[in-house]
Amino acid sequence: MAKQEDQFKKVLSHAKEYGYVFQSSEIYDGLSAVYDYAQNGVELKKNIRDYWWKAMVQMHENIVGIDAAILMHPTTWKASGHVDAFNDPLIDNKDSKKRYRADVLVEDFREKISEKIQKDIDKAKKRFGDAFNEDEFRNTNPNVLRRQKQMDEITEKLTKVQEENDLEGFRQLIIDLGINCPVSGSSNWTEVKQFNLMFGTQIGASAENATQVYLRPETAQGIFVNFLNVQKTGRMKIPFGIAQTGKAFRNEIVARQFIFRMREFEQMEMQFFVKPGTQQEWYNEWKETRLKWHLSLGMGAENYRFHDHDKLAHYADAAADIEFKFPFGFKELEGIHSRTDFDLKAHEEYSGKKLQYFDHEENKSYVPYVVETSIGLDRMFLAVFSNSLQEEELENGTTRTVLKLPAVLAPFKAAIFPLVKKDGLPEVARKIMDDLKWDFNVFYDEKDAVGKRYRRQDAAGTPFCITVDHDTLQDDSVTIRHRDTMDQKRVKITDLKDIIKAEVDVKTWLQKM
């Protein structure tokens, strides 16, 4: 646990030092759980968004995008259930005065048991080597079986209190499990209360005539209310999808862990409209497709896992999370939900307008079912950044800090250095930069020794460094250095574009799917 905390502290420090993420309004001591993306961070965030958009929209002829407004008619949120049911269970510790989500306390407790199981498995793997059978070990080892039974019992009780909205049962479960406040160490808990997460505001020229509206807590509803507009103007045929990226706002009870849980965040969502009765097939298809997208970035299959929901949302008939191993453990990164026809039917009821699809093949109209994929862009940013930050011991006994971002996502694809700031080398380096910047985001640096410049770009995550030296003036060749391997080789200036493109081209990466 201490090792995880140390790694997370390094992530936070590195994100600021290298211009990725700043605390919002820091000169005024900041605003809790609100962050600004800095000069490198905004590029990484944009590249993640583009990588998602190309995979989701550009590569699918039956998926289109929209950009719906943040402010929507307030009845939207009544129809969607957010006004009445968008709540989280809240509990306070009387000694520390700290506030927690009751369900997260229980889930974190359960996850610690899971981590103990994994430790037993890792020890057995080390002991038995190639002869180790993990399935057999899980099904026969007494410690694993005991802990798994404990986890199953917790899951059953948690699901029961959630489904019954049993707030006193929630508190009793926390007490029975012996869950203490991480800050005070005590179990002096308050009652559990429900807390609505929506931010309210007003539209109108005067207070007397103002209309109560909300900052959207999700981007999905903007898609649903535009379903018919998009379907008709785009002449879309079932099955088809509508994708959107954009800001959402939630007044989180506990907004911690850096950009993992913020009050202002960005989502990348796609709602896929299907014929009723085919939703399970498409749900399984999108689970597989979305995991392949994640794996295409090469961040390690062992860092992902599916978590099927024990408690389904009121609108769903199936739901799963793709969880990622963050520095603080496995947490939700993306959700795939089979939302049935709840949303369109609810908006039909509240608006009085038909939101149906006329199927020419069957010669009838019906309300489509929906399969949703929803990923937090900020969480994806944190997953990429934290996974990429590494410290390596080199052969000469020194260490280097390197940000091994997937090259396709790196803010800058190459840095161009003149060996010295004279003898015409800066002019050649500038010319190379002016040529490459039409195709790639590139960086120029002439300050300090080349070795120091290499280290700076390693830490900033730049895949390539290109050095112009005196030989360049004679043979039109430069030294190109690869961030991950530190290998260097001489190449012709005319070959640089092709060399960089081979490593950073979106097509190369997405074809791994």
Automatic annotation (TrEMBL):
It comes from the Bacteria. Residues 153-411 form the Aminoacyl-transfer RNA synthetases class-II family profile domain. GO terms for molecular function: ATP binding; bis(5'-nucleosyl)-tetraphosphatase (asymmetrical) activity; glycine-tRNA ligase activity. Substrate binds at R101, E218, F265, E266, Q267, M268, E269, E372, T373, S374, I375, G376. One of its GO terms (biological process) is glycyl-tRNA aminoacylation. Signal peptide: none annotated. The keyword ATP-binding applies. One of its GO terms (cellular component) is cytoplasm. Keywords: Aminoacyl-tRNA synthetase, ATP-binding, Cytoplasm, Ligase, Nucleotide-binding, Protein biosynthesis. It catalyses: tRNA(Gly) + glycine + ATP = glycyl-tRNA(Gly) + AMP + diphosphate. It is found in: Cytoplasm. The keyword Cytoplasm applies. Its EC number is 6.1.1.14. Catalyzes the attachment of glycine to tRNA(Gly). HAMAP family: Gly_tRNA_synth_B. This is Glycine--tRNA ligase. It comes from Polaribacter aestuariivivens. The gene is glyQS.
